[in-house]
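FIELD: query
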Amino acid sequence: MIRHLAGSIIFSLILIGGSYTLYNLSQQRLVKAQIQHAALRTDAHDINQRLQRTQQDEPAVRIAISRFEALSNLGVIGPERRLEWSDQVKLIEQNLHITDARYTLSPQKQIMPVQGATSYNILGSSMQWHASLLHEGDLVRFLAALPEITSAVVVPSRCTLTDRSSQSTVGSSIDADCQFDWLTVAPAQLTKTATP
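FIELD: result
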């Protein structure tokens, strides 16, 4: 009977040892599962936060896309439209009855990269414009009409007026020499040849 009792005690000790080992293994797995669960909850929270920020930014992104498309359709974004500019300047001169005017347009060059858009650059072409005017108001009206040219941002950078009233008795009495910068935005791959 002692043998039988000793066998049962040994068997019980083996079962207790095995149970303890299984308990420790299950506890380790439980701890790992809890750590993984906490990591997944943190990831889910981060994803949810990003989703909320994206949803909050969506209206601003839509507005930016809309503005980009509008500027692109007008021609401000993309290649220069020199022929269109030339036609529009001539039309403004005709509408204002400026008959003695001429200009030159310099080659396009890179001004600067667009902030926040590494694949776009601001490009500029300088226009030297000379005109014989009846009075200063002609120049003011010409400058006021330049924003109607929508395919570029036209920035007057310099104008010099010379009074010729003592030299001329008929017609124009003022010479205007002006410089305008015609600014456009173009993708960087289109501007490699336009770099100064």
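FIELD: remark
Residues 1-74 form one domain.
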